Amino acid sequence: MECLQEQGFLPLYYYDESGFSLTSALPYAWQKQGKTLEIPAAKGRRINVAGLLNRQADFYYQTHTGRMGSKEVVSLLDSFCEKIQQKTVVVLDNAPTHRSKVFMEKVKQWQEQDLYIFFLPAYSPELNKIEMLWKKIKYQWLDFNAYMCWDNLQQHLTQILDNIGQKYIINFV
């Protein structure tokens, strides 16, 4: 399928969701000797991002502060269908929200709109290219100051998401 995309015959997008909260994803941080580094951690609110990304860094997304369920996934794919102009394939994993009755009932309708769903083999997140995006955002692009308060997190995350493919580039190798 990737060969067909590279030759311009078939757009291929990778879909997934990821969550962002005030609890930093960074496993460690540097600090000056003798200084205490305080990282405020707050449980609770979470920004869930559902996104579609292709190898040319065309990125389409929606955010939700509530639970990310099948209805939200279907909503994103419905609005993505309105954007496509030719047969397009969306690659995604086997999460319960992607295999639910609500989701599976939409697959035929999406095919009629030239959107085709391709499920990855179970337990193979390394095949979903959008996983690289979530990793870059959490471990490299999201500034440490983003975790200071909820407004900072929303602002920093939105700034990154809106600039994927321009300021924030992923090289798929």
UniProtKB/TrEMBL annotation:
This is Tc1-like transposase DDE domain-containing protein. It holds the Pfam family DDE_3. It comes from Adhaeribacter pallidiroseus. Residues 11-153 form the Tc1-like transposase DDE domain. It comes from the Bacteria. GO terms for molecular function: nucleic acid binding.
